[in-house]
Each structure stands twice: as structure tokens, then as C-alpha cells.
Amino acid sequence: MLAAVPGIKISHRISPRPTEEELSFFEQLGIEYATIWTRVEDANEPYLVWVRDLLAARGIRVWNVGILDLHCDPTLTLGLPGWEEKMEQYLAYLEALGRAGIGYTTYAHMANIKMLPYYQTGMSPTRGGVMTREFDEALAAKLPPSHDRAYSDDEIWATLTRFLEHAVPAAERAGVRIGLHPDDPPLPSLGGVARVIRDEDGYRRALEIAGSENFGLCFCVGTWAEGGDRTGKSVLDMIRDYGDRIYKVHFRNVDAPMPVFRETFVDNGYLNMYEVLKALRAVEFEGALLPDHVPGGLIHTAYTIGYMKAMRDRVNAEWGC
What we know:
Elements: E1 9-14, H1 20-29, E2 33-38, H2 45-56, E3 61-67, H3 74-78, H4 83-99, E4 104-107, H5 116-119, E5 122-125, E6 131-136, H6 137-140, H7 153-174, E7 177-180, E8 189-190, E9 193-194, H8 200-210, E10 215-220, H9 221-227, H10 235-242, E11 246-251, E12 253-254, E13 260-264, H11 273-282, E14 288-291, H12 298-318
Helix pairs in contact: 4-7, 10-11, 11-12
């Protein structure tokens, strides 16, 4: 396998069966790591080794492989019938990741993020007229329940605790770290389902339940920016206080915190992303940065990655790295 890149790494999503166009894009932009989202039929060692070696032959390392069927899954989040089967699939997947030498995966515990009305309430233009995701808390409050009934904080904490009691020991055995993504958007409840990883208290409680270095944060800067003051800690304070438990960063920006926000370009939101990178460097973050939810198309993604690399390299130089 390829040697790890020291320090802050630049990552981007690639399809489960990468095309030549995608591979060339990674090579041309100098993207160091890939993150892959695929389906449960690929949650096995042969696939993981195949994709790892395919990418390595082009100088690309794998940072994250996630299984969409087991991520933000209502069965796991709500404790629905079939929970045990889904959990067994997740445990087998962790074991396969470890055998393939892939040491990280992202998990989130939301039941309705894949249902469009609960993810965005509309689209609106950002810089240059590019259409982007918009979320209006007042409109979201009028949405019908997303599932059969309302689910309370206590119920969602119970299912997350049950998940962690099974997943964390398996992750330790496999040598895999799990990064928990915050609830997007970070509201107390959405569509009648509580969202418990909505603030610093939620993250602290989840880390205490897990009680393991193999469980930490996939820290989505954009999600945290959506929450503003209601998250209990700023983006910079979260990095300062939880830096040693942050394994991946979703590096995106929004124009304002709720009640209404729009996703925008990395250099066009209310967060100073250079300060975010400096904070990551200060805590000696050695995980991966991922451009997330970039408005527009490939050209906008390329711009974002170039911007991230330039800032990363400048911060490294300032720190003598």
C-alpha cells in the first residue's frame, strides 16, 4: 500500500467503480485521498481490496468507505424491525475494512436526511447565480412527520447507544475508527424525529458512551455553521477542544446560520475558512479535509479543491511544516 501523507490530507469523493475521467481528475488536481460511498453488496473484503489497489496504482489512497444502506438508516436510527440484521451487516463491514487495511469510516444517526423535504426546503442562487441548497426552519416546521410517529430524544439516544455498544468493540478489533457526523441541519427535531447530535452536549455524550479512541468525530464545519450559537460551541472552539478526536472534516461554508441558510462556495460564506485551517493545524490534525456539497459542477469542485490545497500549504508553511 502507499505510504500515508503526513499532516492535513486533501480528499474527495469518487464513485465505487471509478472511471478514467475521475482518476485523471484526482491525478491532475493532486488529490491525495479518496472517500467512497457504495452499497451493502460492496461491504466485503474482495471489493475493498480491489478498489484500494485500483486507486493505489494511480497514487490515490483510500481514507473512507461508507455503506449507504447502513448510514442514516431508519432501521438502525429508529430501532425498527430488522435492526439485528442491519447491525450484523455493519459489524461484518467493519471487519472487512480492517482486513483491507482501510482504517476509517463515517457514520451518522439521522432517520430522514435522505428524504429531500427534510434535507432542503428549496433551492436558491448563490454567487454568480449558481443554484444551491437552501433550508428554511419555518418551512421545515410545517412538514408532516417523516415516519409512523414521533420519536423522542430518549428513544434516539437509546438506539445510538445500542449501536455503539455493538459497533465500537468491533471497530477496536478491526483497527477501524468511526467518525460520527453531526445532524444536518442541527435542529432538536425534524419531521417528528429527534436529532441528538445537534450540539456539543450531544457529541460529548456520544463520546462518553463509546469510551474508545476508535470512535470520534467526522466534523462537518458546514453543519456546525448552520447551527450557529445553538450548537453551544463555535467551529473554532470545537476544533480546539475535540481536535484529537476529529478524524475527518467536511470543509464547507454557508451564508448564515439558521433560521435560514444557503450552502455557498468555500470562500463566500460567513465562516473564515483560513481560521478553520489554522485551528486544525494548531491541534496537529492529521485527518482528511473533504470539499462537501459544493454548489455547481466539476469546475466549481476543482476551484474548491485548489483553494483548500493553497490554504493548507500556506498554513503548513506558517507552522514550519
